Amino acid sequence: MVVASLLVTVALQAATTPPGGVWQDDYKVNANGNPVKEPHMAGTSILAHIQRIAYGQFMIFNPLPFLSSLSIILLLLSGLPIKRRSLRNISLADMRGMLKDVTDVSVVCWLCLMGVVFMGNVVRLCVWVLRKWGYLKQKEKKDSDEDD
Q: Organism's domain of life (predicted)?
């Protein structure tokens, strides 16, 4: 459980602070006011800008330890009999009913959360495909000069 918690922490930290860091400034025009060939915006990943393939691999493989560790933690807390070493088996007999209720609710909440995340990604994929095929209008790009 300690190792799973550590993996969750590392994966979450890596997701919030990607390798290489993030750009600290906007770079859209050079000193002469001409647009630059490869602009970047503050807060976007440097690795995504410099090495797209490596960043894509990072974005694919970073959630795997996060989700697997969360699953391991949930399984350990749920009381599944793993050689009779679970929270239910080490708890007092009069508390097992309450512990069962808590773990059942936790499992249902986790499954609902995973379902919402899955459905959100399915909707995003459908919108992306529909835009790609031309059934939906492309997003209009915001110009940062209009905000100033």
A: Eukaryota
- Nearest 5°: phi and psi at 36? -85, 160
- Which residues are CB-contacts of 27 (< 8 A; sequence separation ≥ 6)? 36, 39, 40
Same domain, 27 and 60: yes
Rounded to two decimals, the pTM is: 0.48
Rounded CA gap, 3 and 7, in Å?
A: 6
pLDDT for position 85:
55
Residue 38: how many CB atoms within 10 A of its CB? Answer: 7
Residues 16 and 68 in one domain: yes
> Residues 6 or more apart from 35 whose CB is under 8 A from it?
28, 29
Mean pLDDT of 27-56: 85
